[in-house]
Structure formats: structure tokens, C-alpha cells
């Protein structure tokens, strides 16, 4: 049962009388229960639903009517949002959308660039075009598997069709030229597979769009201060991307449908142009080609026309042309299917399906986009250099390269694996396009490089652990020495530093991927253009290595797919696995869908408005003080929600963060939104802010604000474990807490009381004035 007692209680007091304090707890990525957060088995939901809600202890539900009972302590509330990112095992299929999520991350990783609006817009445009290429690549890969390998090659070859009886009705030799045996009809039937994939992506995007992008933020009254608004996260429309996602969904769905139409219609049109057949079919083919080009131009125009609207709450959708674009492309696809299914005497399927150049063109365009994106990111970074920015401001282009590589590897690996399954002898059918085979071949050397790099990082960590052991012994000088205990603490500290080596790993892998991808493209072009008869046989060693790489790449992608889904399912159902990989997933889905509409939904578009509404309504109704307490990813949500508050409300809020990745992850990888200027502005806007961290924490760290602000926000690193050996207070060995249980440290209660005392001393009733002395 939901309750909202503060409104009735507020009516009995003078408006703005600040005589009660609220502590709003926001948990991290691991997920938890309100009972654990509040330390009480009896809790009640105050507001919210089964997806995300605010809870209180049963004894505190009427706290606003008993303010005298809470003069020395705050009223604890827990905001539980774990159901926004967790669920049943079926949601692990979202991991198949990983390339889309990664390219969407690249949009938010641009360097800080105040005043260079056009350059920032160009950066966003290039990322959106890279996302569009990924959609076309995924659908083209489905067309390659269903249309080329299955319907065109295997069904058109007796040896392959005999091996797979379910293809017999499509084979002209097995079915004695049945109705489905002509190549055009086979292609039209197989087109249902990529069409179903496109429809599934549209459905998932539309369903999550209705649930997530439709949560309106709290807007009105007061705009954030322009002088202190150093991040876009404080803009009214930042967490409301309804219009952009709808527009991009229409464009990407249309692009997928056009890809299927091109895969079906262009081979038939090419045959009609060469065969000298009926003039009507030839004319219709040319008309369809022109229509496909015109529709593709419209899709690109829709993607390029406009980016996000953050300065205002854009509640309108686009015009009918954009909204009906998928329907128009679906009608064009239906016309193309009918055109391809027309009987054509003399048309037989041989070799590969025409259109191999599609994958080469996509790879070239993606590489070019990444290079240009890198040039722009470098120019932005030079404008406002940030020494802590990941890869010197090139994090966005590097991550975009990884997204394209993921798409290419998935496409090439799946196509090679299906070809091996259809024709294990490699003699019945030609197999996938040469470029996809080359892309599957680069997987083993890339994995070898990653293993070598991980080995180097492991060696460095081992050395650091030896150095940390001496530091641990110095920290506990005078206590009985325990070498095993010291090694364990030192090893935990050293392992925690691996997070800071992430930029190096991403930089090396993305650069190597770009070079290997370029090599694969050049090799594929050289192979296609060199006649087989004029090619001298390669040395046996080289040929064997190439075949081994292709086979390993094919099997590795199959194994990787299985592990991918298995670990993804476990991450959603097993709390321990979720803590291991959940931070990466929650960082990716924290950001709105600005570059790709088929990326997993942004949970912050529900969580941030929830927190903003709760803080604003409670402070307005009671005039009380509020401590916003966030752990891990909860601290990021807390900061984003604080930026969304009116300036007068922010001055009544104290921020307590612990195990926070605000600077260590977000500040380095997203400098435009969480860089030093943005975090300094947050420190200035809220009444006070304290941050707790441990040297054993692999995720959280200090905020590292410049100047005197740093020590004012960051407390000295907490001891972990709380006791080195057995003491009267800790008769049993104290655990190494790392990223968890910050509230168990006495420093947590000290800092919370310090923040409450600061609020109590500086709070001014909101009914008498709307600005505090710290307002500029």
C-alpha cells in the first residue's frame, strides 16, 4: 500500500519550516532489497510500482507527522531500481544488441567543447551514420545466411540440398522444378528471415520506447543556472529522448527493409538487364532500383536532419513522412518480392549471390567514419585539454571502432559457421563472401593479442602487489605481522588498479582491429580481382595457416555466441555474476539512445525523473533537509538527478557518494558530461558533498576536484579491512570489503552527520527566499 504522509503533515506547519531531514538511499549495480538497504525486515512502499519504487521502514511511514522524533537522525528512504536492468533470462537476448549499445556509447564519449556547436553536431552526425551502417550490416548478414547461403547456394546445388532434406522443396533438381524452385521465388521466401529480424528489432525498440522514453521529467518554474550548468545532464530535455528515438527507429527500420529489398530485387534486375527478356520486366527492374536509391536517400536525410533536443522538453513527434517511412519501405519490399517471384526462364543460381561488394562497402564506410570521427575528437580535445580523459579524448572513436568490429566479427563468424554447417566438405557451395571469410580469419590473431596484453597487465599487477605489500605493512606497523593477510590485502589493492588500465586495453584493441580490418578488406579485394587460373598456389604452410585461421575463427564465434548468451542469462539471474560484469552493462544502458534506436533501453530515463520528482515534491511539501546517498552506479543516478533539480532545491540537498565511479569511469570516458568542470559545478550547486572511497575498490574512487575543492569533497581513503588482526572490537578476522558495505564503516555515519549538521546550519525556509547565500 502506498502512502504519502508528508503532504498532510506539511499542511499543519508553516510553509518552508525545515524541521526534519530525509536520507534518500540509492543502491548500485548489484541490486538489493529495501529490507537490506534499510536494515529492517518490515518495509512499506511509499511511492512507485513493481519496477522502481521508494520504500520506508514501517515505523517511519508517518515520520512527517512526528518531526520531534527525528530531530537527531534522518528519515531513511530507499529507492530500488534494480528491476529496470534485471529480469528473467529472456532479457539476456539484449546482449545480442551489444554492437548497437557500444556505438551509442561513442556518442556520449566526445571531449568537452564549449562553444563549438557545429563541431559537436558533426560528431553526433558521424556516430549516427556509424549506427545506421551497423543496422544495415546486421540485416545484410541475415540476408547472407538466409538468401545467399541457404536459398541461393545450398538449395540450388543438389549435393547440398540432398544433405538437408528440409530444403528439398526449394531445389529445382530435387523437387523436379517445383513452384518454389525458381531462384527469385526461393529468394522471396528466404527474405522472411531478415524481414522477421527487422520486425523484431522494431518491436523491441517500440516496446521499450513506450516504457522508458515516455517518462516525462519534472520541468517548470526555474531553469538551471546557465553559469553553473557545465554539463548537458542539467538540461530539461536531456532525459526525454522520445522524439529522436522515434525518428531513428523509423529510419533504421526502413533501412533494414530496404536492405532486404535490395538483396532480393537486385539479382533479378541484373538478370533482366542482361538476358534481353521482356521489356516490361527490365523497365520495372530499373524503376525499382531508382526507388530503392531514392528511399535510401530519404533514410540518410532523416538520420542526418536533426540530433537531440536537450534545451527544452520536446513532446512532439515528427511529421507523417518520417512516421510512415517504414510503411512505404515495406510496400516497396512487397513490390520487390512480387517482382523477383516472376518466372524467368533460363535463370539459375550459380556461384555466390551478386552483392558481395555490399560488405566491402560497409567495411570501408565504417573505417572512414571512425577515422574522421577521430580527427574531430582530437580537434575538440585540443580545444579544452583534459589530462584525465581516456585515450586523450579519442575514447569515442575507439569505442565506435569496437562496435563496428563486433558487428563485423558477428557477421563474418555467423556466416562462416552456417556455411560450414550447410556444407562441411567445402566443395558443394562457394560459401560466404570472401570478405566475411577474411573477417572470421582475423579473430584468432586478435584474441592472441588480447591474451598477450592481459598477460602483460597480469605481470604488472603482480609487481604492484609486491610493492603494495610493503605499504600494507607500513600502514599496520606495530601490529602482529601476518604475511598471508598482508599478501591478500596487497593483492586486492593491486587488482583494483586494473580498472585504470582500461583505456590502454581499448586503445590497443581498437587500433589493432582497424589495421586488421583494413588488411582483411585489401586481402578480400585482391582475392576477388585475381583470376583463380592466374594465381600461383600458395606455399603449403601459408595455405594451412589461412585455413586454420578460418576454421578457428568460425568455431570461436560459435563458442563465443554460446558463452555470450549463457553469461548474459546468468548475469540477469545470479547476483554474483551480475556484480562481476554488471557495471559494464549498466554504464552502457545508463545513457539515452542518441545514436541507435535498437540499443537496449536507457534505465536512467525512468530512474532520474523518479529521483527528481521525489526530491522536489518532498522538499517543497516539508521544507526539510535532504541527504542524497548513492552507492556505485547509484551515485551517478544521484548526481544526474541533482542536476535536474531547480537551483533553489539543490541548495537544500547534500550529496553523499561512496564507491562512486563518477570520476574514475564516467569522468575519464565521458569528459563532456562528467569532466572536471561538470563535477566542480555539481559541488558548487549542491549545499555540500562528501565522497568515500577505498584503495581496494575496483570501481569507486576519489572525485579529484581541482584546487581546494578536492579535499573538501574527498575523504582520505578508508581503511580496508577495518582491522588488520583480531581486536576486541573485531574478535574474528575482518573481511576485505572492496566495493561493498560502505555503511559498515564508522566513517559513513560520521560523514552523514556532518552533512546534516551543515544543512541544519545553512538551511533557509523556501517560503521566505528562493536562493541561498551560496547562489551566484
How is this structure best described in words?
This protein is mainly α. The chain has two domains: 5-85 and 603-762, Rossmann fold, CATH 3.40.50; 97-216 and 240-441, no CATH class. 57% of the residues lie in helices and 5% in strands. It contains 27 helices and seven strands. A seven-stranded mixed sheet has the order 2-3-4-1-5-6-7, with helices on both faces. The chain is globular, with a radius of gyration of 30 Å. The model is unreliable at 7-18, 220-229 and 764-776 (pLDDT under 50).
Summary tags:
57% helix, Rossmann fold, 2 domains, 5% strand, mainly alpha, 776 residues, single chain, membrane, transmembrane, 27 helices
- Percent range for β-strand residues: 5-15%
Distance between the termini: 43 Å
Roughly how many Å is the radius of gyration?
A: 30 Å
Principal-axes geometry comes out as globular
Q: Please count the beta strands (DSSP E, at least 2 residues each).
A: 7
Please summarize the sheet with the most strands. Answer: 7 strands, mixed
Protein structure class = mainly alpha
- DSSP helical segment count: 27
The average pLDDT score comes to 84
Unreliable residue stretches: 7-18, 220-229, 764-776
In which range does the helix fraction lie?
55-70%
Number of domains: 2
Strand order of the largest sheet: 2-3-4-1-5-6-7
Protein name: Integral membrane protein
Keywords: Membrane, Transmembrane, Transmembrane helix
Organism: Streptomyces cinnabarinus
Transmembrane segments: 92-110, 122-142, 187-204, 250-271, 283-304, 325-342, 362-381, 393-415, 435-457, 504-526, 549-568
Amino acid at each position: 500500500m502506498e502512502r504519502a504522509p508528508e503532504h498532510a503533515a506539511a499542511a499543519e506547519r508553516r510553509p518552508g519550516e525545515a524541521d526534519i531531514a530525509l536520507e534518500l538511499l540509492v543502491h548500485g549495480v548489484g541490486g538489493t532489497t529495501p529490507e537490506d538497504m534499510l536494515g529492517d525486515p518490515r518495509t512499506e512502499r511509499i511511492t512507485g510500482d513493481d519496477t522502481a519504487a521508494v520504500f520506508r521502514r514501517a515505523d517511519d511511514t508517518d515520520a512527517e507527522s512526528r518531526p520531534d522524533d527525528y530531530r537527531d537522525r534522518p528519515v531513511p528512504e530507499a529507492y530500488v531500481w534494480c528491476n529496470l536492468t534485471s529480469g528473467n533470462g529472456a532479457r539476456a537476448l539484449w546482449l545480442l544488441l551489444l554492437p548497437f549499445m557500444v556505438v551509442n556509447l561513442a556518442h556520449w564519449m566526445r571531449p568537452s567543447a564549449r562553444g563549438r556547436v557545429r563541431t559537436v553536431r558533426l560528431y553526433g552526425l558521424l556516430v549516427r551514420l556509424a549506427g545506421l551502417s551497423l543496422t544495415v550490416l546486421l540485416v545484410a548478414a541475415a540476408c547472407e545466411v538466409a538468401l545467399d547461403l541457404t536459398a541461393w547456394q545450398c538449395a540450388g546445388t543438389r549435393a547440398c540440398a540432398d544433405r538437408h532434406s528440409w530444403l528439398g522443396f526449394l531445389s529445382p533438381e530435387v523437387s523436379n522444378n517445383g513452384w518454389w524452385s525458381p531462384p527469385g521465388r526461393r529468394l522471396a521466401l528466404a527474405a522472411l528471415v531478415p524481414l522477421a529480424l527487422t520486425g523484431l528489432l522494431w518491436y523491441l525498440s517500440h516496446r521499450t520506447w513506450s516504457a522508458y522514453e515516455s517518462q516525462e521529467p519534472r520541468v517548470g518554474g526555474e531553469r538551471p543556472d546557465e553559469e553553473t550548468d557545465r554539463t548537458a545532464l542539467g538540461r530539461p530535455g536531456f532525459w526525454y529522448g522520445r522524439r529522436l528515438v522515434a525518428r531513428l527507429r523509423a529510419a533504421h527500420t526502413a533501412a533494414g527493409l530496404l536492405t532486404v529489398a535490395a538483396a532480393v530485387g537486385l539479382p533479378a534486375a541484373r538478370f533482366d538487364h542482361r538476358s534481353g527478356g521482356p521489356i516490361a520486366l527490365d523497365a520495372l527492374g530499373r524503376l525499382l532500383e531508382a526507388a530503392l536509391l531514392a528511399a535510401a536517400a530519404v533514410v540518410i536525410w532523416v538520420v542526418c536532419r536533426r540530433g537531440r533536443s536537450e534545451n527544452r522538453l520536446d513532446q512532439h513527434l515528427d511529421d507523417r513522412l518520417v512516421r510512415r517511412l517504414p510503411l512505404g519501405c515495406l510496400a516497396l519490399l512487397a513490390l520487390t518480392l512480387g517482382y523477383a517471384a516472376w518466372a524467368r526462364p533460363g535463370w539459375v543460381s550459380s556461384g555466390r549471390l551478386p552483392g558481395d561488394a555490399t560488405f566491402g562497402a560497409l567495411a570501408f564506410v565504417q573505417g572512414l567514419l571512425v577515422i574522421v570521427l577521430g580527427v574531430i575528437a582530437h580537434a575538440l580535445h585540443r580545444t579544452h585539454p583534459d589530462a584525465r580523459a581516456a585515450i586523450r579524448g579519442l575514447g569515442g572513436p575507439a569505442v565506435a571502432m569496437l562496435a563496428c568490429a563486433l558487428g563485423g566479427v558477428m557477421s563474418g563468424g555467423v556466416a562462416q559457421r552456417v556455411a560450414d554447417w550447410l556444407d562441411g566438405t567445402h566443395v558443394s557451395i562457394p560459401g560466404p563472401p570472401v570478405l566475411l571469410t577474411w573477417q572470421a580469419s582475423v579473430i584468432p590473431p586478435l584474441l592472441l593479442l588480447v591474451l598477450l596484453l592481459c598477460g602483460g597487465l597480469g605481470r604488472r599487477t603482480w609487481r604492484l602487489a609486491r610493492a603494495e605489500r610493503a605499504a600494507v605493512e607500513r600502514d599496520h606497523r606495530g601490529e602482529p605481522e601476518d604475511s598471508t593477510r598482508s599478501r591478500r590485502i596487497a593483492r586486492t589493492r593491486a587488482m583494483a588498479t586494473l580498472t585504470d588500465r582500461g583505456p590502454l586495453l581499448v586503445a590497443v584493441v581498437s587500433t589493432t582491429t582497424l589495421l586488421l580490418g583494413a588488411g582483411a578488406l585489401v586481402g578480400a579485394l585482391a582475392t576477388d580481382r585475381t583470376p583463380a587460373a592466374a594465381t600461383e598456389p600458395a606455399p603449403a604452410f601459408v595455405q594451412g595457416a589461412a585455413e586454420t585461421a578460418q576454421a578457428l575463427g568460425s568455431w570461436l564465434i560459435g563458442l563465443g555466441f554460446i558463452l555470450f548468451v549463457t553469461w548474459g542469462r546468468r548475469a540477469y539471474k545470479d547476483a554474483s555474476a551480475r556484480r562481476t560484469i554488471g557495471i559494464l552493462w549498466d554504464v552502457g544502458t545508463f545513457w539515452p539512445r542518441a545514436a541507435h534506436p535498437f540499443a537496449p533501453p536507457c534505465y536512467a530515463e525512468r530512474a532520474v525523473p523518479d529521483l527528481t520528482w521525489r526530491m522536489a515534491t518532498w522538499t517543497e511539501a516539508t521544507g526539510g533537509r535532504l541527504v542524497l546517498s548513492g552507492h556505485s552506479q547509484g551515485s551517478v543516478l544521484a548526481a544526474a538527478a541533482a542536476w535536474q533539480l531547480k537551483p533553489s532545491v539543490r541548495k537544500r540537498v547534500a550529496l553523499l557518494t561512496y564507491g562512486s565511479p563518477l570520476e574514475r569511469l564516467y569522468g575519464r570516458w565521458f569528459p563532456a558530461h562528467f569532466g572536471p568542470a561538470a563535477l566542480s559545478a555539481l559541488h558548487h550547486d549542491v549545499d555540500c558533498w562528501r565522497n568515500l572511497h577505498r584503495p581496494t575498490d575496483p570501481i569507486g574512487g576519489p572525485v579529484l576536484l581541482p584546487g581546494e575543492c578536492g579535499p573538501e569533497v574527498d575523504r582520505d581513503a578508508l581503511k580496508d579491512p577495518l582491522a588488520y588482526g583480531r581486536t576486541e572490537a573485531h574478535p574474528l578476522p575482518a573481511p576485505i570489503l572492496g566495493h561493498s558495505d560502505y555503511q559498515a564503516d564508522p566513517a559513513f555515519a560520521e560523514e552523514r552527520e556532518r552533512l546534516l549538521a551543515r544543512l541544519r546550519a545553512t538551511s533557509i525556509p523556501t517560503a521566505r527566499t528562493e536562493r541561498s547565500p551560496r547562489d551566484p
